[in-house]
Amino acid sequence: LGLTVLAVKPEDQDKLYGAIDLLAQATNTVARGEELKSAIEDNLLSLREAIGDAEAPTVYMAGNSSVLQTAGPAMYQNYMIENAGGLNAAASVEDTYWAEVSYEQVLDWDPDYIILASDADYDVDSVLNDAALADCTAVREGHVYQLPHAIEAVDSPVPGSFLGSVYLGSVLHPEQVSEQFYHDCADTFYTTYYGFTPASYE
């Protein structure tokens, strides 16, 4: 089509920073890009310091279309879980995109938490009421949550994706990371970089 294209695939934290650098250079906003990277890193550092040496629970990250889709270590969602002080239950998955798994595999992993993608087209109740998952620790203990989706999909590798880690940190480690901490991070980020304060967080 004769178009000049910049393609990015920032499926880990370093690649996300690289994408910010590339786009900042292309748009002549290098200083703003550096400011954004520093803000992300500062928030992640504050999150790690808050979590400290708390025990890391296992997390099953469910995909957009089905609870039987999950993100392995090659996807950004893996880094989001690690940043939040969790362990990816699907760390052994070799797929580089959403992997299709079985109920038996989820039960074998037996995650402490099941987290639904921001843009999931099913809901928490459908997972909690899924008879095939009744014996899963996350379901038995009611530890099923959906990532925030009021503004954007924070489990995608976008500038605000660190908020997915902060939110998840508040779910996995509520004694160390308060819900207010997440709200404050979201308010500051969207006010500074998007020019508005969210009316809703989830």
Describe this structure in words.
The structure is a single chain. With 202 residues, the protein is α/β, with parallel strands linked by helices. The chain has 8 helices and 6 strands. 43% of the residues lie in helices and 9% in strands. The strands form 2 sheets. A 4-stranded parallel β-sheet has the order 3-1-5-6. It has a two-stranded antiparallel sheet with strand order 2-4. The longest helix has 22 residues, at 30-51. Helix 1 runs antiparallel to helix 2 (30-51), helix 2 packs parallel to helix 7 and helix 3 crosses helix 7 (162-172). It is globular and about 55 Å long.
Task: List descriptors.
202 residues; two-stranded antiparallel sheet; 6 strands
Quick description:
The chain is of the alpha/beta class. It has helices at residues 13-26, 30-51, 76-83, 103-109, 124-128, 137-140, 162-172, 179-193, and strands spanning 58-62, 69-70, 87-88, 99-100, 113-116, 144-146.
Tally the helices: what do you get?
8
Low-confidence stretches: none
Walk across the major sheet and give the strand order: 3-1-5-6
CATH topology of one domain: Rossmann fold
The SSE order reads HHEEHEEHEHHEHH
**Silhouette:** globular
CATH class wording of one domain: Alpha Beta
